[in-house]
Design a protein that fits this description.
This protein is α+β, with helices and mostly antiparallel strands. It has 25 helices and 37 strands. Strands 10, 11, 12, 13, 14, 15 and 18 form a seven-stranded mixed β-sheet that branches. The protein binds one RNA strand through helix 7, strand 11, helix 10, strand 15 and helix 11.
RNA sequence: GCGGGUGUGGCGGAAUUGGUAGACGCGCUGGUUUUAGGUACCAGUUUCUUAUGAAGUGGGGGUUCGAUUCCCUCCACCCGCACCA
């Protein structure tokens, strides 16, 4: 018997799909649309197993929805700008563009070998001027609407590499490459006004019911809405006042100090004449900009010597500190400290010997709830003049009213979300299309000059931004006055590229960013699939961009992604040699006695934990090698079969082998039984033998279950149901040659091929053809379950006595309850369990269970 | 610290959402075929047990005729956020 040759068959069908343009789509008002999108990959050069899992899931959804009659858009592109290309340029002397396009070519081949139902005619790469030029147009439109603006903000500056560093590039306060101590510097940065949309971004989360709760919650926390108050404190002997933000205005009477940020104007003014303050500010600036860095630092402050007047307590003076834990970016960059009811204030007060006065009492009577920690729970206000006796919430309202009357404060809603800084001092990104003119200031590039294309002749041998030291690129006449001016040499954050690519896919070759009729038809994305690591930034930025594109008239939708699914990671065991070196899975094997050893040398291998695949621990498998060995279908089948898609899955060779075996078994079964089955399009005969009818019922039940599982993305369960059906087919006696049996067998064989189709598309096409079809399975409709066939005439019901299982009974479907009781009680095992006891009641759940209560 | 999640055989996991716990796959144990194999097929595989049952879904408690599922509490692990005023 000829064995199924995955390599040949898969290549064959991939070619046929491509020739027939099976997956190339255009808007079609006669059919419902469905837009399936997986997060587009960064072209690192090779796909990894995580990609295989991600794209397989998306492909199953796309193929399934297509079979269901939807007009399915399923595109692919490349998130192609980014630092790795510049690193490659530096380290290997290859131009970023060359490196990137070579990687794209390699990865495209690998993806194609997976047999994905992608519309390759819509492929885009974000590093192509045909993409980023339109991004520049969007930028200019946003600029007109003031959705983007320029502002000075702090960055991590590497003084040797002369470059801005991302937080993760700062290691122990030093640049990752140069090792130089990182400085905080203020630079002019372009910012998207995302924080203006905080409330809207937050509100809409409630409506996004096809997003995981987890992700919605993460975004909610990130946006971080809080309600509180602004309070103004007069600084003694100064004309200034300090405006602070607090969420606990009710604890105002417990205030014992003020704290301001090192970057606060008050501090900066002071630093000019106060060496202690200046030194402290400098110290704060060495911490780096990440919140993590600030967290790890000790809580520290320096007394400015100034005091502020308490707005309600006559004569009370609060010392003003500069403190390293106060962030200029949040609230007003200043706060009052109430140590009795806030952990951070408590720690600070303990360190600097400040007063701790309780003003909230848990039951209203206790003098203090303080032990060795502040009290942050609910209760009644004490020690607070006119607030005494009020509950915390009532006290907040009351004191805000009083503050307003005094003109010393007001209610204020605050958000943690900050504006999105998009400037990057790098070469390999989308140039920001503005020009700096001495006379006219910052001037947008003329639209007819778009795209502003990156120069090709750049060098990476000098520190700093290659665009900046390019001899001619940045010199250009001012679009406004025509005098000599200088181009912006910053490029855009790559998150900008990924914030609208889903819209560009709708009209990828248009000479404007997007065509309205196309985006109106395709958007929003119906099912978006990707990793949880993008739960916050990418998904929030894309949501902001969608709003901005609506404001500038480019699209109609409020939200880009109607459905979101976050898949789990792929993990693998780790292996180490006796010398402690990590080993690749292909470097180890079982020896004759069943021990894991190194293939080279035969040394013993220590098996480590099951961890996320990473290059450093070498616990990676190469999808190319897997596909070569097992075939794309088996690889696809396996990544779907074992674990629920949102959970991490462990890659094991044994699991992949299992998938491969199923593929062989199904192939063999169809070949062996095609002759026995009826011909395609055979008329349904009047009579169907009993055994065939049973098989038919199983087939239709399987269709129903698999359909439901695919709708809910429960791929692992869908596969389990297909295995069960395969088993039923194996057990079925094919010897009866009556028309009825042959017809049922044909239906069953076609059913299993149909159901397997989205998961193992090449095998399914091959089998579809073997079954005598001239059509392409990818163009064929999804099978419909006949409901009557999914309902059994009889059901097995469990019989319990006092909640313990004592037997099962076979009764007609929907049998009368009293009849069920009768049958149940007639069981010997049931009678034995009841014994001498009297029956108190009998609970019958139709078609499920009988419980005799004694 | 706050928020969220997870915990079921040797392993991945299933359980119609309160109704026969362990589907399906992997592994393992027997057996049968086979010219070899990462072959195929059949049977078995939660634990204990006097073979009659008993226990059992991280531990303890509760609600219920009935709990993997709901509630309380504790434990372990994972993820997110975090000097957020």
């Amino acid at each position: 018997m000829s064995r199924y040759n995955a390599k040949e068959v898969e290549a064959k069908w991939q070619a046929i799909w491509a020739d027939r343009k099976c997956f190339e789509v255009e808007p079609d008002s006669s059919r419902p649309k469905y837009y399936v999108l997986e997060m587009f990959p960064y072209p690192s050069g090779r796909i990894h197993i995580g990609h295989v899992r991600n794209y397989t899931m998306g492909d199953v959804v796309a193929r399934y929805k297509k079979a269901q009659g939807f007009n399915v858009l399923h595109p692919m592109g490349w998130d192609a700008f980014g630092l790795p290309a510049e690193n490659a340029a530096r380290d290997k002397g290859v131009h970023p563009a060359e490196w990137t396009y070579a990687n794209i070519a390699a990865m495209r081949d690998e993806l194609k070998s997976m047999g994905l139902s992608l519309d390759w005619s819509k492929e885009i790469a974000s590093c192509h001027p045909g993409y980023y030029g339109h991004q520049q147009k969007l930028f200019l439109d946003f600029l007109k609407e003031e959705l983007v603006y320029r502002k000075e903000s702090w960055v991590n500056w590497d003084p040797i590499d002369m470059t801005v560093l991302a937080n993760e590039q700062v290691i122990d306060g030093k640049g990752w490459r140069s090792g130089a101590t990182v400085e905080k510097r203020k630079l002019n940065q372009w910012m998207f006004r995302i924080s203006d949309y905080s409330e809207d971004l937050l509100d809409n989360l409630d409506k996004m019911d096809r997003w995981p709760d987890r992700v919605r919650l993460m975004q909610q926390n990130w946006i971080g809405k809080s309600t509180g108050a602004h309070v103004s404190f007069d600084v003694i002997d100064e004309a200034d006042s300090l405006e602070i933000y607090t969420t606990r205005p009710d604890t105002l009477f417990g205030a014992s100090f003020m704290a301001v940020s090192a970057d606060h104007p008050f501090t900066q003014k002071l630093a000019k004449n106060n060496a202690d303050v200046a030194a402290f500010v400098a110290e704060c600036h060495q911490m780096g900009t990440s919140e993590e860095a600030i967290e790890k630092a000790d809580k520290k402050g320096v007394d400015t010597g100034f005091t502020a007047a308490h707005p309600f307590i006559e004569g009370k003076r609060l010392p003003i500190y500069v403190a390293n834990f106060v962030l200029m970016d949040y609230g007003t960059g200043a706060l009052f400290g109430c140590p009795a009811h806030d952990q951070r204030d408590w720690d600070f007060a303990k360190k600097y010997g400040l007063d701790i006065l309780p003003v909230v009492s848990s039951d209203g009577n206790k003098v203090s709830d303080l032990g060795d920690a502040p009290y942050t729970g609910p209760g009644k206000i004490i020690n607070s003049d006119f607030l005494n006796g009020l509950e915390v919430e009532a006290a907040k309202t009351e004191i805000i009213e009083r503050l307003e009357k005094l003109g010393k404060g007001s209610a204020k809603v605050n958000y943690r979300l900050r504006d999105w800084g998009l400037s990057r001092q790098r070469y390999w990104g989308c140039p920001i299309p503005v020009i700096h003119c001495d006379a006219c200031g910052t001037v947008p590039e003329k639209e007819e000059n778009l795209p502003v294309v990156l120069p090709n002749d750049v060098t990476f041998d000098k520190p700093g931004n290659p665009l900046d030291h390019h001899p001619s690129w940045k010199h250009t006449p001012c679009p406004s006055c025509g005098k000599d001016a200088v181009r912006e040499t910053d490029t855009m954050d790559t998150f900008v590229d990924s914030s609208w690519y889903f819209a560009r896919f709708c009209s990828p070759r248009a000479d404007i960013p997007v065509e309205r009729d196309k985006v109106d038809y395709w958007l929003p994305v119906d099912q978006y699939i990707g990793g949880i690591e993008h739960a916050i930034l990418h998904l929030l930025y894309a949501r902001f961009f969608t709003r901005a594109m609506k404001i500038t008239g480019w699209s109609h939708v409020e939200e880009p992604f109607a459905g979101l699914f976050t898949q789990g990671m792929v993990t693998h065991e780790t292996y180490r040699s006796t010398s402690g070196e990590w080993l690749l899975p292909e470097e180890v094997a079982l020896n004759d006695s069943g021990d894991l050893v190194e293939i080279e040398g035969g040394g013993p291998v220590t098996i480590g934990g099951i961890e996320k695949m990473s290059k450093s621990k070498k616990n990676v498998v190469d999808p190319g090698a897997i596909i070569d060995k097992f075939g794309a279908d088996a690889a696809r089948w396996y990544v779907l079969s074992d674990s629920p898609p949102d959970r991490d899955m462990e890659w094991t060779d044994a699991g992949a082998t299992g998938a491969w075996r199923f593929k062989q078994r199904l192939h063999r079964y169809i070949i062996e039984n095609t002759e026995t089955a009826g011909v395609p399009g055979m008329q349904e005969p009047g009579e169907i033998p009993e055994a065939a009818l049973t098989l038919r019922k199983t087939a239709h039940k399987t269709i129903m279950q698999v359909t439901e599982n695919l709708e809910n993305l429960h791929f692992n369960n869908a596969i389990a149901r297909i295995y069960e059906f395969m088993k039923a087919l194996n057990d079925y006696d094919v010897s009866d040659q009556s028309d009825g049996s042959r017809w049922v067998l044909r239906e069953a064989l076609e059913t299993i091929v149909n159901l397997v189709g989205p998961m193992m598309p090449h095998l399914a096409e091959e089998l579809w053809q073997l079954l005598g079809h001239q059509t392409i399975l990818a163009d064929s409709p999804w099978p419909q379950a006949i409901k009557a066939l999914t309902i059994e005439d009889t059901v097995t019901m469990a019989v319990q006595v006092k909640g313990k299982l004592r037997g099962t009974i076979e009764v007609a479907f929907n049998e009368q309850s009293d009849r069920v009781e009768e049958i149940a009680l007639a069981q010997k095992s049931v009678q034995n369990a009841i014994g001498e006891n009297t029956i108190r009641k009998i609970i019958v759940v139709p078609n499920r269970i009988v419980n005799v209560v004694i």
